[in-house]
Amino acid sequence: MTGRRAPYLREMGLVQWRYISPIRVNQAGNSVTKVTAERRGRQDAPSALSTLADDVAECERCDLCRTRNQTVFGAGSARARWLFVGEAPGAEEDKQGLPFVGRAGILLSAMLFSIGLSREDIYIANVLKCRPPNNRDPLGREVRECSPFLHQQISWVQPEIIVAMGRFAAQALLETDQSLAELRGHCHKYQINELPLVVTYHPAYLLRSPSAKRKSWEDLTLAHSILD
Ligand code: SF4
Q1: Which protein residue's CA is at the shortest distance from atom 6 of ligand 1?
Q2: Which of 86, 148, 190, 227 is the most exposed place for a label (fewest CB within 10 A)?
Q3: Would you say the CB of residue 146 lies under 6 angstroms from ligand 1?
Q4: Residue of 130, 144, 168 to test ligand 1 pocket, by largest number of atoms within 8 Å of CB
Q5: What tens digit of pLDDT does each residue of 109-142 get?
């Protein structure tokens, strides 16, 4: 294992790997190119997302507004081809107002780098925009109240693929109660506009269960192959 990716792939628990060209220079197919051109033509996504972020910052639709320090809206390129979705802010995200900071964020960056992406190439958001107290699991009514914000984010970014990280994100986006094990390894369709959607582990889970990192890398290469 050599090259700039070696430490990132080691972080992912990968001792052998096959080089994959970065997705930005690995375009294939006129239809993808056409979709990309149409999407790039949308100049209003950044301002629309900014307006939506302001709305979220004032949201009191569920009780989490009472315990949050601040909302965590999302981050990344407003015209990203890849959109990653997590569960909810943790303590550090609640403090900084940004998604996926801290150890889980560092691992996410390593996961991205292992397939030729960086945080600047993606858009990332959580299902919930406010931290559940003590990092408890999101409640059904919280997911129902907050999901419309996520759907609006997806409709403004117009990615070409969605990666759902963890059970809650996958179940919320696919409106299913299937387990993560059942949902991994397949190309699903996002319920609203039928974007391809791949399910993988949440980086926080991978920190607790490093042996699953290889499976997560396989999920990301599946997503990469779908785009190709
Ligand atoms: S979690 Fe979502 S719905 Fe609940 S208060 Fe925060 S932004 Fe509003």
Answers
A1: 130
A2: 148
A3: yes
A4: 130
A5: 999 999 999 999 999 999 999 999 998 999 999 9
Range of the domain at 36: 6-13+32-227
CB neighbour class for 213 (10 Å; exposed up to 12, middle 13-18, buried from 19): buried
Question: What is the separation of C-alpha 228 from the centre of its chain, rounded to a whole number of angstroms?
Answer: 19
Specify the pTM.
Answer: 0.84
End-to-end CA distance of the chain: 24
Asked whether residue 57 is assigned to any structural domain, the reply reads yes
- Our mutation pick for probing the ligand 1 site, out of 73, 146, 147, counting the most ligand atoms within 8 A of Cβ, is 146
Total domain count, the chain: 1
Query: The domain spanning residue 135 has which CATH number?
Result: 3.40.470.10
Residue 119 near residue 74, CB atoms below 8 Å: no
pLDDT at 15 exceeding the cut of 50: no
* Under 8 Å between Cβ of 206 and 212: yes
Do residues 126 and 170 make contact, with C-beta atoms less than 8 angstroms apart?
no
Of 187, 208, 206, 5, which Cα lies nearest the Cα of 86? 206
